[in-house]
């Protein structure tokens, strides 16, 4: 029987130094990977030139693209010198993490790879991360599996919110519930979802459910995809496989305001555009998958009203912020995916 092949799918945007650390970690795996699909979301920081300098690609993409540009290059595993196919895809515009993973999964699936290992450009898998994932398969029924996932470590501790369970009875404001520390004491545990930082997905599951939802742009596209993955198979956490996640923003770095003894994190106006996608996408997920539409609407209204009050009390640009937040909730309910809207509302421009 032909040996399973593993292709890493990495999405990058303007983080070339972190990207290099990710790619180097993939080349140092104790179980060598077979291929890498790198989706470059039209980075503006010189990512193609950097990859050329570091020997990952042999030619630069054209300066102006009307459609994705893909070339296959050959790199080598750092430990065994095994050949690794390096698929470099330069997108003509930034389609967000969701669009990038859609493109990467679609292309890697079409190439026939057995397992797709999804991760952001700020992920750094431990040298034995892939080996530990594949070893875990020996104790599982492969025919029942959609995906398996590594532990995610941020700031030297496990990020519990990246793996866990789905609560369809209370799907708003957050449909996902973190797995407790106890789960990480087991060799393998079944879970409901895993972020796109170190999730290994089998092609048979992809053949049944399709590709990630590119319309989400950023945030919670991984949760939506895991909901579909769970419909056709099981997802397992393998705590012994570890991936370091380096680009996450600490809440402590955000400005805070206190009201009635409760701390409210405030987002600067220049960074506010990102929050639209989280609100819209979670509202959409709650509407689609909630077991109780009445409970969902009540919880949504409470969260929305709290947002309005906090804007009035604490924030600048109050009218624009209220319109912006209202649009995010309404678009989620109406299933409107206009990914240029956030910057258009806030700054009068549509570029991502």
Automatic annotation (TrEMBL):
InterPro entries: Glyco_trans_2-like, Nucleotide-diphossugar_trans. Residues 8-53, 80-208 form the Glycosyltransferase 2-like domain. Coiled coil: none annotated. This is Family 2 glycosyl transferase. The keyword Glycosyltransferase applies. It comes from the Archaea. SUPFAM superfamilies: Nucleotide-diphospho-sugar transferases (SSF53448). Pfam families: Glycos_transf_2. Keywords: Glycosyltransferase, Transferase.
């Amino acid at each position: 029987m032909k040996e399973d092949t593993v292709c890493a799918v990495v999405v990058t945007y303007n983080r070339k130094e972190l990207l290099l650390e990710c790619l180097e970690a993939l080349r140092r795996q104790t179980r060598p990977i077979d291929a890498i699909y790198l989706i470059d979301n039209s980075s503006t920081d010189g990512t193609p030139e950097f990859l050329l300098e570091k020997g990952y690609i042999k030619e630069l993409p054209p300066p102006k693209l009307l459609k994705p540009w893909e070339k296959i290059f050959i790199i080598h595993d750092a430990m065994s010198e095994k050949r690794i196919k390096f698929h470099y895809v330069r997108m003509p515009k930034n389609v967000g993490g969701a669009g990038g993973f859609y493109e990467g999964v679609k292309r890697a699936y079409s190439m026939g790879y057995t397992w797709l290992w999804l991760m952001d450009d700020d992920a750094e898998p431990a040298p034995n991360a892939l080996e530990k994932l594949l070893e875990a398969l020996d104790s599982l029924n492969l025919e029942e599996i959609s995906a398996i996932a590594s532990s995610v470590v941020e700031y030297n501790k496990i990020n519990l919110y990246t793996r866990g369970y789905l609560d369809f009875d209370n799907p708003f404001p957050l449909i996902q519930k973190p797995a407790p520390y106890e789960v990480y004491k087991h060799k393998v545990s079944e879970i409901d979802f895993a972020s796109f930082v170190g999730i290994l997905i089998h092609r048979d599951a992809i053949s049944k459910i399709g590709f990630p939802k590119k319309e989400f742009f950023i945030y919670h596209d991984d949760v939506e995809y895991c909901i579909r993955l769970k419909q056709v198979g099981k997802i397992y956490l393998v705590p012994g496989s570890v991936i370091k996640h380096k680009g996450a923003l600490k809440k402590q770095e955000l400005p805070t305001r206190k009201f009635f003894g409760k701390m409210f994190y405030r987002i600067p106006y220049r960074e506010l555009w990102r929050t639209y996608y989280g609100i819209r996408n979670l509202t959409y997920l709650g509407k689609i998958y909630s077991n109780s539409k009445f409970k969902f609407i009540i919880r949504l209204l409470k969260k929305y009203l709290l947002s309005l009050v906090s804007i009035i009390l604490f924030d600048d640009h109050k009218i624009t912020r209220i319109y912006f937040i209202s649009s995010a909730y309404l678009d989620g309910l109406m299933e409107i995916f206009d990914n240029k809207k956030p910057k258009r509302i806030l700054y009068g421009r549509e570029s991502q």
